[in-house]
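Can anyone check this?
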Amino acid sequence: MQQGSEEAFTVLYNHYGPRVYLNVLRMVKDDLQAGEIVQELFTRIWQKRSNKGISDNFEGYMYRIAQNLVFDFFRKLKRDHQLLEKFRTLAEENYEHIEEALQLKQHSHFLHKAIEQLPPQQKKVYELVKLEGCSYKKTAEIMGISPLTVKEYLVALKKSILKYIITHTDAAVLVAILSNALIMIK
């Protein structure tokens, strides 16, 4: 084999291959991986056939390379597992953010539809106080009404929005929408 005889290499492969395969299989517990490791082992032996270590102690050399290949396999497996966990964590975090953003957008749209159902005066009070940030006094001046009326409109519009939400959703969605809607209209 050291002089390039493929027949000699085949004899060594047929003699040691099955035994090495079984040893590797016991360690990696996967037929395909064990086969690939044995193939890599004999490929390296062929490539380094002129190395003095091979002729001095072929079995020792072969088992040392096999052991190193198994260690490499487990190191790569560990790295791949860590990378997969990192990816999974990142994907879950991003998915949660996307899901939250979609839900908020849906709830905002639903709240907008509820506000569109309000009488014009209540809708105007909502826009001035909640969207533009005007005080009750400023809103009252703009609309030509008293600050107490502004407060009464806000109470009425909260009731109207809650009634709209309750009549237009099922119970599971209702809880989520109500919690977001209350935050948005406070």
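Reply from J.R.: I decoded it. The chain has eight helices and no strands.
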